[in-house]
Inverse folding.
């Protein structure tokens, strides 16, 4: 497993986020190798300035962590990157695509390439583990057999095949998170965002990085 370290640490400034990146990352990052390029991003909710002039460059093929105090804006930043939230100013370029310039259809396609494991998992109560994981593929109209094969693969990956037919109230917290990981990986996303327990990071790392 790759070790991680802080590039810079600003724990004494609780209103700032800290980006942590993998150990072997070369410091000279070339522009064309960037997966996520955030330039001077700012975002407010009314009077509350959540993101202020945030610039972060993340190259392809690496696992990164974003850490910071509660309420500092980590989730807001992630929602901006995956197109769920609009930002006020700055630029956000993901895999060469400027998010702001996408049409509605392009934005929908873009969201497909991003897998998100939500902080509260966002599993649907009325659906079984199987159906929760199948959901993204159903939305994209995949065939029954393709869905079945993929869901079972993913259940194996996150080691939860024995819970295939249960609903989320019968799962432990860690098991819920594993279902959420499987669902986020269902569409083979290029970028995976997750609030993951360190314990579960290896499920993400097992997959080939694109
Ligand atoms: N839709 C919204 N409308 C108004 N304020 C919001 C909205 N979403 C988030 N905020 C505020 O923006 C700030 C940043 O929230 P965010 O969820 O990004 O924090 P976070 O860093 O992810 O925190 P945590 O570690 O607790 O998950 C908080 O003060 C929050 O109350
Ligand atoms: Mg959050």
């Amino acid at each position: 497993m790759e070790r991680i370290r802080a590039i810079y640490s600003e724990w004494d400034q609780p209103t700032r986020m800290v980006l942590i990146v993998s150990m072997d990352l070369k410091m000279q990052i070339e522009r064309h190798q960037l997966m996520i390029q955030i330039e001077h991003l700012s975002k407010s909710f009314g009077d509350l300035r959540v993101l202020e002039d945030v610039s972060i460059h993340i190259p392809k093929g690496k696992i990164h962590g974003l850490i910071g105090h509660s309420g500092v804006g980590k989730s807001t930043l992630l929602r901006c990157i995956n197109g769920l939230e609009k930002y006020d100013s700055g630029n956000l370029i993901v895999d060469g695509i400027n998010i702001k310039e996408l049409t509605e259809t392009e934005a929908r396609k873009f969201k497909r390439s991003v897998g998100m494991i939500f902080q509260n998992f966002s599993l649907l109560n009325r659906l079984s583990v199987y159906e929760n994981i199948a959901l993204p593929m159903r939305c994209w109209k995949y065939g029954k057999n393709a869905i079945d094969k993929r869901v079972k693969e993913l259940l194996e990956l996150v080691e939860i095949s024995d819970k295939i037919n249960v609903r989320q109230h019968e799962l432990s917290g860690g098991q819920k998170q594993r279902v959420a990981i499987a669902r986020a990986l269902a569409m083979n996303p290029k970028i995976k965002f997750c609030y993951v327990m360190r314990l579960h990071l290896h499920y993400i790392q097992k997959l080939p990085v694109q």
Notes: The pocket of adenosine-5'-triphosphate (ligand 1) is lined by residues 45, 48, 50, 68, 70-76, 119 (CB under 6 Å). The first helix runs from residue 74 to 81.
